[in-house]
Every structure is written in structure tokens, then in C-alpha cells.
Structure to design on (224 residues):
């Protein structure tokens, strides 16, 4: 008898829950804003081999010193130059003798893109034999992405609203109030087709555009 009462109570509770759960429409929206970059991030480095670790690092340090001096002449601020990687490791060659490989890489932020090609050319002339490596060689970005991220979020919301209206209309219904809205993905940036080249540069560089993207998830009331 107790079991029967419990089953009836559960069935009544379940009916009440599902009866009061309103119909809803759940959609995702994406917004993208294309921006011309005003910042370049370079990863350049020097790598040498020698019979001893000391000799290998000495050669690397000589070239890196020349590279840093050339960057100073380009008025690159100290805060925009950061050591990214320093490494010395033993290697075995076919002559069965132990050699050493030394590497020194720096990350440089270039805020005046008109001189980007020249800066790349000078770093190579002063001994850089790595452009890239563990990270991308040249990456374009915007120095102040916040306004563009805001625009991308607004565009994502409008995209979600448009989707939410289309779906119920196809079924003869419509949307009601917004019940929930949240950012479903982290705002990100990606480079798209390269379109504009630096002129008069030692190394040809294409700046192109950067796309700033935002994603949102929205829940609407469904009115039959």
C-alpha cells in the first residue's frame, strides 16, 4: 500500500513539474568584426652549434646583442622586447663527437607597422636565423581590442535573435521574452586573407586583417 501511494505521489509530482516547464527556444549566435591590425608580434631568434656549450652560447649571445641594439635604434621600447626561450643542449653527430646547440629567442611587439619589413630585414642581417620556431614568426593583432569585442558581442546577439525568430515561424509559433543569455565562447581573434603589403621593406610583409569573434547562447520563451 505504501509503495502504491509513493508511486502515485511521484507521478503527480512529475506531472506538475513538466506541466509548469514552459516551452523554449535555444539558439547560438556568432558575431565577427574585421579590423585592420595596428600591432605585430614577432618571434626571432639565433641558433648556433659548437664543440662546447660555452662556445655555442657565446656565438648566440654575440648575435643576439647585435639584434637587440638594432631594435633599440628602431625605437622599440624595452617593455616590448621579451626573452622567449634560452636553451643549450648536447647533440650527437655522425663523427661520434659531442656537440652543443644553443638558442636564444625574443618576442618583439612592433607598434608601427610601416617599419615592420625593415625591422625583420635588420634582425636577419644582424644574425637572426630563426623567425618563428616554437611559436608563430609574425602575428598581427590590435592594441586595443575591447571596443571591437563589444561590437562582436552585439553582432552575436543580433545573430541569435534572428535565428530564434526564424525557427518558431517555420513551425507556426513565435518567441516571447528572453529567459537566458550568456557568452558561450571566449572572444577570439584570427588572421584572415592578407591583402595589404608594407612598401619599401627589406622583407615583404602582408598585414591583412584580424577577425574578432564572439559567441553567445540565448534562451527564449516559445509562444504557440
Amino acid at each position: 500500500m505504501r509503495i502504491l501511494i509513493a508511486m502515485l505521489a511521484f507521478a503527480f509530482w512529475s506531472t506538475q513539474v513538466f506541466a509548469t516547464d514552459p516551452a523554449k527556444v535555444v539558439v547560438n549566435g556568432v558575431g565577427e568584426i574585421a579590423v585592420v591590425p595596428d600591432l605585430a608580434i614577432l618571434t626571432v631568434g639565433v641558433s648556433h652549434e659548437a664543440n662546447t656549450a660555452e662556445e655555442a652560447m657565446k656565438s648566440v649571445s654575440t648575435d643576439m646583442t647585435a639584434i637587440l641594439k638594432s631594435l633599440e635604434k628602431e625605437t622599440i621600447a624595452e617593455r616590448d622586447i621579451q626573452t622567449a626561450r634560452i636553451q643549450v643542449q648536447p647533440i650527437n653527430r655522425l663523427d661520434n663527437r659531442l656537440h652543443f646547440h644553443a638558442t636564444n629567442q625574443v618576442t618583439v611587439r612592433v607598434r608601427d607597422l610601416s617599419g615592420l619589413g625593415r625591422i625583420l630585414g635588420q634582425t636577419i642581417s644582424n644574425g637572426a636565423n630563426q623567425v618563428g620556431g616554437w611559436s608563430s614568426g609574425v602575428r598581427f593583432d590590435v592594441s586595443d581590442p575591447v571596443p571591437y569585442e563589444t561590437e562582436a558581442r552585439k553582432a552575436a546577439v543580433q545573430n541569435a535573435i534572428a535565428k530564434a525568430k526564424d525557427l518558431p515561424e517555420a513551425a507556426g509559433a513565435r518567441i516571447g521574452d528572453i529567459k537566458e543569455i550568456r557568452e558561450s565562447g571566449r572572444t577570439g581573434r584570427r588572421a584572415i586573407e592578407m591583402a595589404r603589403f608594407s612598401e619599401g621593406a627589406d622583407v615583404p610583409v602582408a598585414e591583412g586583417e584580424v577577425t574578432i569573434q564572439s559567441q553567445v547562447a540565448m534562451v527564449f520563451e516559445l509562444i504557440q
User: Anything to note?
Assistant: The chain has a mean pLDDT of 82. Residues 146-170 form the longest helix (25 residues). Helices lie at 2-20, 53-73, 116-125, 146-170. The chain has four helices and eight strands.
